[in-house]
Task: inverse folding
């Protein structure tokens, strides 16, 4: 193919297409065009090996679809694994101080994150002023367990 007096082979056109797709991906970061850029590279290799245009297009489609199906979920999980806990979820795993006695049958109060929360424990009794670990939260009630002594030291 001749463009403005420059003769370009099929492989060169596929590589230009791949470069354009990679640039679009870099600008958008949407994980959409990168897979087709990989397909274009596959088609360029097919063109270099002397494949017909039909085979090049088939290679482009197959490689693009395979990349999309098998690698997109892996890359997406790796990129989205840095979710930061916000609001009440940030309290889970923190330590607090029991403001009152807490038992599995009598809810009490825990000071955590600068606030006083209603709290329950799943088993046993937690004495007032004990250090607790927040295990979960349901509504506005924390589920806590007493921090073990060896963890306090």
Result:
């Amino acid at each position: 193919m001749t463009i403005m007096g420059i003769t370009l082979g099929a492989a060169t056109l596929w590589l230009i297409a791949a470069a354009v797709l990679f640039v679009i991906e870099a600008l958008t970061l949407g994980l959409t065009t990168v897979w087709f850029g990989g397909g274009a590279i596959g088609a360029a290799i097919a063109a270099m090996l002397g494949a017909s245009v039909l085979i090049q297009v088939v290679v482009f489609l197959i490689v693009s679809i395979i990349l999309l199906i098998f690698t997109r979920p892996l890359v997406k999980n790796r990129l989205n694994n840095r979710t930061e806990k916000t609001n009440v979820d940030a309290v889970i795993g923190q330590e607090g101080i029991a403001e009152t006695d807490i038992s599995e049958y009598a809810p009490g109060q825990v000071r955590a994150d600068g606030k006083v929360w209603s709290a329950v424990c799943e088993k046993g009794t937690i004495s007032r002023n004990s250090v607790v670990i927040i295990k979960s939260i349901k509504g506005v009630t924390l589920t806590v367990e007493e921090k073990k002594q060896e963890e306090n030291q």
User: Anything to note?
Assistant: The radius of gyration is 29 Å. The CA atoms of residues 51 and 67 lie 21 Å apart. The mean pLDDT is 85. The beta strands are 2-3, 6-7, 95-98, 102-103, 108-112, 115-121, 125-126, 131-138, 141-146.
